Amino acid sequence: MNSAERRPSRRAFLGAAAAAGLVAGCHAASQETKPAPVPPTGVHQAGITLPQQPQSQLLVVVADVSVAPGFVLAELGRRIMTLTAGTDDRLLGLPPGDLTVTVGVGPRLVQTLDPQLPGAKDLPPAAHETIAPADRGGDLLLQLCASDPLVPPIAAAALLAQPGIRERWRQSGGRGPHLPVSDGLTAPRNLLGFVDGIIGPHTPAEQQRDLWLPGPAPVAGGTIAVVRRMTLDVARFAALPVAAQEAVFGRRRDTGIPLSGGVIADGPDLGAKTPDGRYLVPASAHIRRAHANVVGAGLMLRRSYSMDTPAPGLLFVSFQNDLHTFTATLASMETADALLPFTTTTASGTFLILPGFDERRPLGSTLFPL
């Protein structure tokens, strides 16, 4: 072996040093960005308003239940507590981080208790849907959110491994970087390039009015979820001029500010017009057709995620204390919303999100006997 073979070249040395520095840098970054755990127990389930900034990864699993739901739900609650605490071997050694699991039950199960209870009504069919029978409805919703993409599917396997649960469909999604909206509130962009989920019941008063189911009924502290998997015609939308894209949404693409002006957190001024009498926010703009004042209903809280498989699209989850909020909004959109022609819904369901739970009050025990 000659001396050149014995001594590493300067390039090799610098390359190795850079690689070592990169590894050290990644390690340091991972140590600095450990997400804080989210308590799973309380008046409300986690994964709705806590954490305030939703985690970057979402997995939705919809299943059917063929046994008495009380025992299934109570066991799910116990497993959620051990999984989020990091004491469950079924997590395969992974730290749970900021894992949250939100559980809901479908209309069939609620109707067995009382057809008048919130959550007993199903979603009617709608336009722009192509849904297989197995992808519509369902008895059980599991919404799993975390910063680590490995955690939700592993936690889901642990939750589903009990008799009487048969999975229907699942879908994962992710959220991009969050843009500041106001006072700690943030929102991500969707696959069409626009900031998504700006308006919602963010204050405690708004959440009490439009989000949480009131007491003293057995559903107090819960809410109603709507889950929709939608494909997006990204290529056709991207072919539009920017001004046409902004007219579809009613917001500026770069800033998220309404076309009527103001700041990103502002609601649109629906009466604002140009000097020649045209609405600044077009009549068919999404933020007009879905606006609470136009719809005549309350606000909905959205935790929507982008997806790339089975096709580019959006995994839409909304929470509201009255299903009419969603159905009336969708009906308003179907009359004129310029966004709908770029969407096709391929899975859909509504679920009663159960009240919060703890060690002494099992999940679902206010509704389903053990």
Give an account of the 3D structure.
- This protein has 370 residues and is α+β, with helices and mostly antiparallel strands.
- The longest helix is centred in the N-terminal third of the chain and has 23 residues, at 10-32.
- A hairpin with a 2-residue loop joins strand 5 and strand 6 (185-188).
- It has helices spanning 3-6, 10-32, 69-85, 107-113, 151-160, 204-210, 234-238, 242-249, 286-289, 292-295, 323-336; strands spanning 57-65, 100-105, 140-146, 165-174, 178-182, 185-188, 223-232, 301-302, 305-307, 313-320, 343-353.
- Residues 1-31 have low confidence and may be disordered.
- Strands 1, 2, 3, 4, 7, 8, 9, 10 and 11 form a nine-stranded antiparallel beta sheet that branches.
- The protein contains eleven helices and eleven strands.
Radius of gyration: 23 Å
> What is the SS-derived class?
alpha+beta
Tally of helical segments: 11
Uncertain residue segments: 1-31
Order of helices and strands: HHEHEHEHEEEHEHHHHEEEHE
Could you give a short account of the major beta sheet?
A: 9 strands, antiparallel
Approximate shape: globular
